[in-house]
Design brief:
alpha/beta, Rossmann fold, Immunoglobulin-like, 2 domains, four-stranded antiparallel beta sheet, 15 strands
């Protein structure tokens, strides 16, 4: 299955573009699922047919789904209380009824990610179009699976599970309680689920499309989003310039807006694969209006993002790690080596990435930002590098 993730600034029309993309694919005979994170039925307004917590068939080959985060959270909490029944009874804790449960912060994000995973693993569809939240929420959402897995590995390292039979003995010797087996089992189950979500996001068949109105605010949002996505190893497959005015407009305030749009579009075409979507003069409603938007097709395979390590040992005595970071500013970049990991900060974004195996036996020898690409130089550590390679 191919997955297309669509996001953009709030109010940019990302949900409408996602709906148009799904409608276009379904018309070509592609079995398509349109998944939305919107609480309100903006998606249904665009499609001209209501959507909700159960998958709804809109047209032939097109199904729309808005998962219910509240119900999913209730189910998860009920299941957790059942698994931890012995511990809760020991503590004398009163269990929560489903009727009194309201989602905690982050519950909606986790619910949507799990729905994304379930949809991507389904054999009922050929294409998944995901209408993500606006950019300020979408970028942390895409980072969530990797970050949570890293927290779990640090707090409950999997290798410690090998000693679970010794835990009671170790607890008596150390004089402190050891983590219960159910805690490790819960962590392992979460790790598997998060790994499945992460696999969907980073799959070679997954593409990201940004939707923005051409103009100063849209340009700033696109630059920030492209950098945040690139730091996560995700490429912006297409930039969809939405609500573009016709080339000829009355000599009114619209002419100033048109000039502003032209300037933004000229700048965007230098860095992105730009597709313009016309302004209909009204909010699109129904499949006929969505057809008129002429969004880009979904047949072309996305270009995977590569972070290659170039072998320059013979020429310069170093290995160079190339990290594409379009839009990065040198003064806003920061690198910290921590063991076998590299902490990369770019503007307001931060990511901790494991070093490729060859670079773990090297020391950082410098870094430079050139043409939107961060190039980090690594010199072999004489104490760790095989003598035959030096």
């Amino acid at each position: 299955m191919r997955t297309i993730l669509i996001t953009g600034p709030g109010g940019s029309g990302r949900t409408t573009v996602a709906a148009a993309t799904a409608v276009d694919a379904a018309r070509e005979g592609t079995r398509t699922l349109l998944l939305s994170a919107d609480r309100t039925d903006t998606l249904g307004t665009a499609l001209g047919s209501a959507t909700g917590p159960a998958p709804t068939e809109i047209t032939e080959h097109l199904t729309a789904w808005r998962p219910d985060a509240t119900e999913r959270f209730r189910q998860d909490l009920t299941a957790f209380q059942s698994r931890a029944a012995n511990v809760l009874d020991l503590l004398g804790a009163a269990r929560l009824d489903g009727e009194e449960v309201t989602p905690l912060p982050g519950a909606e994000e986790l619910s949507f990610l799990r729905a994304l995973r379930d949809a991507a693993l389904s054999d009922r569809y050929d294409l998944l179009v995901a209408d993500l939240p606006p950019l300020p929420q979408a970028l942390p959402l895409l980072a969530l699976p990797e970050e949570l897995r890293r927290y779990l590995r640090r707090l409950l390292p999997p290798e410690r599970q090998a000693a679970r039979a010794l835990r009671p003995v170790l607890g008596r010797l150390a004089g402190v309680p050891m983590p219960a087996e159910w805690l490790y089992e819960t962590a392992a189950r979460w790790d598997v689920e998060l790994a499945a979500v992460e696999a969907v996001i980073t799959d070679r068949g997954t593409a990201v499309r940004l939707v923005a109105e051409p103009g100063p605010a849209g340009t700033d949002a696109v630059t920030t989003a492209a950098l945040g996505l690139a730091l996560r190893g995700l490429r912006t497959e297409a930039l969809i310039a939405n609500r573009v005015l016709p080339e000829t407009v009355p000599d009114t305030w619209l002419s100033g807006l048109l000039a502003q749009q032209r300037k933004a579009l000229a700048a965007w075409t230098e860095s992105y694969d730009v597709h313009t979507v016309p302004h209909l003069g009204r909010d699109p409603h129904g499949t006929e209006d969505l057809d008129a938007l002429a969004v880009p097709g979904v047949n072309a395979a996305p270009t995977p993002v590569e972070w290659p390590v170039a072998d320059r040992l013979a020429e310069d005595g170093v290995l160079v790690w190339h990290l594409p970071l379009p839009g990065a500013i040198r003064d806003d970049l920061d690198l910290v080596r921590r063991g076998d990991e590299l902490v990369i900060s770019a503007g307001s974004f931060r990511r901790i990435v494991p070093l490729p195996s060859a670079l773990r036996r090297c020391t950082v020898a410098g870094a430079a930002l050139r043409e939107g690409e961060l190039r980090i130089r690594f010199a072999p550590d004489p104490d760790l590098w095989p003598a035959a390679r030096r």
